[in-house]
Amino acid sequence: MTDRPNDDVRRISSDDGSNWSHTHHREALSARRRSETLSFWHLGTRYHATVGFYDDGRPGEVFLDAAKAGTEREAIARDAAVTVSLALQFGAPLDTIRRAMTREGSGAAAGAMGVLLDMIAAGPPPADIPPPGTRGALAETLERLTDGGAP
C-alpha cells in the first residue's frame, strides 16, 4: 500500500468496458461555443439548464439552477453541475457519469442532474446552432420524455 492512494490509479474502466486514462489535463471549451438552454420539472421543482458543447458535439459543461433562488435544491443542483462539468472536462464519459446517478426502482433518475444527463444522452445535439426563438434537440427530447413537462 502506498501513502498516496491515487498513485495506483492510471486507467479507469467504464461500465461499457471501455477505458479512459486518468489525466490531469482539463480540456477547455472554445470561448464561442454552441449551447442549449431548457427548463424542466422534477419532483415539483422547476429547473433551468444550459448545456455547452465542444466543437465536436460532446457536452463539456452543464449549468443547472432551481427556480427558487437561495434554496437547498438550488445549491445541490449548482454543485452537481460544477462537478459534472469538471468530470466532462477531465475526460469522463457522459454515459459513465449518467449511469452513476441515483436511480429509482423503475430505472428513472432520482435527482434533477440525473434527469438532465438522461435528456442529453437521449438524443444527439443539433448539428447547427438553433436560430434564436427556435427549439433545440434537448427541448424536444424533454417534451417527448415528460409529455409536456409540467406536473
Automatic annotation (TrEMBL):
<protein>
    <recommendedName>
        <fullName>ribonucleoside-diphosphate reductase</fullName>
        <ecNumber>1.17.4.1</ecNumber>
    </recommendedName>
</protein>
<feature type="compositionally biased region" description="Basic and acidic residues">
    <location>
        <begin position="1"/>
        <end position="14"/>
    </location>
</feature>
<feature type="region of interest" description="Disordered">
    <location>
        <begin position="1"/>
        <end position="28"/>
    </location>
</feature>
<keyword id="KW-0547">Nucleotide-binding</keyword>
<dbReference type="Pfam" id="PF12637">
    <property type="entry name" value="TSCPD"/>
</dbReference>
<comment type="similarity">
    <text>Belongs to the ribonucleoside diphosphate reductase class-2 family.</text>
</comment>
<feature type="domain" description="TSCPD">
    <location>
        <begin position="43"/>
        <end position="108"/>
    </location>
</feature>
<keyword id="KW-0237">DNA synthesis</keyword>
<dbReference type="InterPro" id="IPR024434">
    <property type="entry name" value="TSCPD_dom"/>
</dbReference>
